[in-house]
Amino acid sequence: MLKRSVLSIFAVFLLWSVMDFLIHNVLLQSTYEATAYLWRPMEEMNIPLMYVVSFVCVTAFVAIYALLVAPKRFSTGLAYGALLGLSAGMSMGFGSYAYMPIPLGLAGTWFLAAFTKSVLAGALVGALVKDPPRQN
């Protein structure tokens, strides 16, 4: 199961990295430009730290599933991803909206992005990390 967990970490990290690029650099680019007063300038952003944070979050996501969730199957992974996505999405999207002057549409997009990323990650982990076959 360790090999499949490590494979899952890299698969989910790649998935989330691609999705983050598309969400933040393509879909939300004009929104970020319109609210530039809220964000650090690009040259002040710590991109390596962003990747470290993402890798730690992915590792925790997979480790929680691998160590604490049972049974390990696709449907369980999907449910796990949906529940964590609901929690993360509410916190990142509407939690941020509660204390930051961001547009409601941005909060909604952050919610949907976090939820979708988690559901897809749960599906990946559920497909890759399985219980060992039973022995009769």
Describe this structure in words.
- The structure is a single chain.
- The chain contains 5 helices and no strands.
- The chain has helices at 2-27, 29-34, 47-68, 74-99, 104-128.
- The two termini are 20 Å apart.
- The chain is mainly alpha-helical and 136 residues long.
Quick recap:
Helix content is 77%, strand content 0%. The chain is built from five helices and no strands. It starts with a helix and ends in an 8-residue tail after the last helix.
Order of helices and strands: HHHHH
Instruction: Say how many strands there are.
Output: 0
Mean pLDDT: 95
**Sheet having the most strands:** none
Q: Please, how many domains?
A: 1
- What's the total helix number? 5
Overall shape: it is elongated
Strand content: under 5%
Rg to the nearest angstrom?
A: 17 Å
What is the distance, rounded to the nearest whole angstrom, between the alpha carbons of the first and last residues? 20 Å
Based on helices, strands and strand pairing, what is the structural class?
Answer: mainly alpha
Low-confidence stretches: none
Summarize the amount of helix as a percent range: over 70%
Blueprint of the fold:
Layout: H1 2-27, H2 29-34, H3 47-68, H4 74-99, H5 104-128
Helix pairs in contact: 1-3, 1-5, 3-5, 4-5
